[in-house]
Protein 1
Amino acid sequence: MTAPTVPTDSADPADPAGSKASDATGSGSGSGSGSGSAVATLLASPRVRVGVPVVVLAAFLLIAPASFDGYGISLLSKALALGVLAVSVSILAGYSGLPTMGQAAPFLVGAYTAGVLGTHGHTIGVVQLLCGTLVAAGFAAATGLVAIRTRGVAFLMTTLALGELTVTAAGEWRSLTGGTDGMYGIPRVRPLPGMATLDSDRNVYWYVLGATAVIVAIVWRVLRSPVGKLLLACRDHEARMRSAGHPVTRYQWLAYVAAGALAGFGGVLMCTVNQYVSPDDGSFSNSALVLLAVVLGGATSPLGALFGAGLIVATRDWLAGPFPGHGPLLLGLMFVIAVYAFPDGVAGIRFRAPKRRGGQT
């Protein structure tokens, strides 16, 4: 049985309100009105609304290595890794209706998996990504059996508790994780067998960018398929879906596991960038930051989540440079402004041509 189609703005990139505005604009007289309607229709086109931001972001990421120094390139790599974590949060908070405060836990599990493999001589990047993703998925599958049975504030607090328990376990398990001191001296990786070691920040950036592009493209395609519509239907009409015979809890558990696997993928990338892992990588502050990134970018937009993560890293680690100690204040101001100016996130911005009356502007 297939899921019923849910008419939500976030599920369908086409904007019905924008279409109505275009029709109203086109109903005016004169060629100016016709051109305004054509512009509005073009701007409301799904290909334009999705394609233009993708092209702009891709162009920026491709020319960035030639425009930034080593520190800036390292920040971009961290932003991409954190962006993958933000995308995993958007799957839960945006598509499944399960806002989480503990998504940094599988992120930490993936990072430690990569660290343990690296310190034991397994430095193939693809192997680390695969193992980190699988271990994080297993972690999410186990913890999801507890978390997924709750909703709303209870789910939020349950994931927060699971995250704090994971951080505590990592700090106490010194023989494996290095305790609160963390795991340092992790060797650099080789992307594939036979390839050279990533011996510079620029090479690490290209590796992280390629891995991020592949995984986000896969997530985008899956969420644009009937799977995404199914999750949205469970989010918006849970009782109706249950009455139609759909195992909603199972669907949401699978989404929780998939989000955990994606978070582990991001954790492996962060370990590759930093060559260091500590329990602090799974802290509450990281979970809160990626949830903020999703709010800034748009709850149901993977691209928006990436943008939000980049904005947070830039504000916290770069813009806060001239204002030492004021990073949290800047993040708080950015959040307040974003909530009032962009209540649906950056991905919710709609462009419409101004209406014309009687052929006059």
Protein 2
Amino acid sequence: MNYTHILKEIINYVENNIDRSITLDEIAANFFISKFHFHRIFKVYTGISFGQYMGKRRFQHIGDDILNYRTMEIWKIALKYSYIHPQILNRIFKKHYNITPTQYRKNNIRKVIQDRLIVLGKETISLNGKIMIDLSLEFLKKTKVYGITYSIDLAKTPLTKEEIIAFTKMKSQDFIVTPQLKKFYYISIKKTKDIYIFGVFTDKKFDFEEHFTIPSGLYALLHYSGDRLYNSLDVVLNDIQSIFDKEHLAPNIDTLEIVQCSKNGLTLP
């Protein structure tokens, strides 16, 4: 079952009732779903428990109000969010922000505790009948990877699109068939006007000298089958952009990189 629609409704419900605590029982009653089932599904889709999300999101609003309504006394903001005793708000606020509400207002620098979750519908797309893609968003932890990078200056070495694809296939296959590499591999593709950069990496160091870190953050995950992604890269990027436009997201296409995760040369679901 696809829970995207109901999760979007629940995220909206949280935003509309952010001034008070919302329980799992309340969600279950309002959205006709088992609270135990919802608790599990929410964490699977978002990577965070509902209680953690609700608490952090609430204090994100409180922190933003402290900065946005500078003439409003903090005890009034506490009351707005159902905290009768300001000292309780101060104590919990400090756990999230590491400083008191008064210090936070004085510093006047917004800290992100929990942005509103984006639940992206998992859509199946057919690209020219060759590639099927399931796109979703997920928060990934920072990962260090090791491998080899190839760079071609297209101004000095003009290559056709077909020649670039052939080069990419050849180098990636050379890497993937290395005997000691039996787990996960990452293929990073980045193309600017004149420079084409292609790197093949694994999460194990082995004897590779090159390494880089995939930073933690919210990523668009493509689970695909069919022809290799780099065979129809431009088409894939266009389809990603159309979905992001639909969801009112704004990725920076100029710096967009694609990371492909594989096992033994086969794409994992």
Protein 3
Amino acid sequence: MTSTAFRFIALVTARACLLALVASLALPPTLAADPAEDEHGDHEHGVGLHGGLIVPLGRDSYHIEPVFEADGVLRLYLLGSDETRIHETQRQTLTAYVKPAGGRETVSMQIAADPQEGDADDKTSRFTGTLPESLRGIQVDVTIPNLRIEGERFRVGFTSAPPPEHAAMPAALADDESAKLFLTPGGKYTEADIAANGRLTAMRKFKGFQAKHDANPKPGDRLCPISETKANPLCAWVIGGKTYEFCCPPCVEEFVRMAKETPDDVKDPEAYVKR
């Protein structure tokens, strides 16, 4: 073998060793990025108590629940790593960049600290802003590049509307309307049903209930009669002497109203099963 061939083999061997050394020193791919660069997290969570989709922050270190209300009002509820617990952070004004979903041109808006009852004097667990009029009533993408929590910076991104497969959830009733609906019989909803349900409204019976709307039920799973997402056996209600399962209390309200006003539309529980 010639000296030139030996030099070539030595060069290739040295290069392979160098690449192996670099690979062994590389940071493992599972290390979290800087929180300011973590926009969406890796997955979506369920629907929160206020009706908004739960968005994870910083690998589930925190969560926010964005809620789009009437007249373009946007509220952000800050939650802890356990998304059932409220989390407070320092008061601050957030700048959000909003655009039509899938669009390119953004409009900036301010989202100010809006403390809830019980928040510490210098803290807030809620932020509130108002969408520009041109972006109300349509699906929008929202990006907040700088949210500070516990001294860390997070980049937040979410969309105003749930995925298409999610059915729209009815709004909860006011207390007096709810009492009238649940505590008076009518149609297929009987006095015996009222007693079986503990003479309570759905919002009172399921106070603190965490809805997890699963839009991908498996065959054989029970379905919420209203949203057609996977039903939760912990959110059950007796109607016409039969037990129905729902995804959340507002859907119970809607179904009881149907049982009273259009009873012929109410099917047996076995009809609300994923085929």
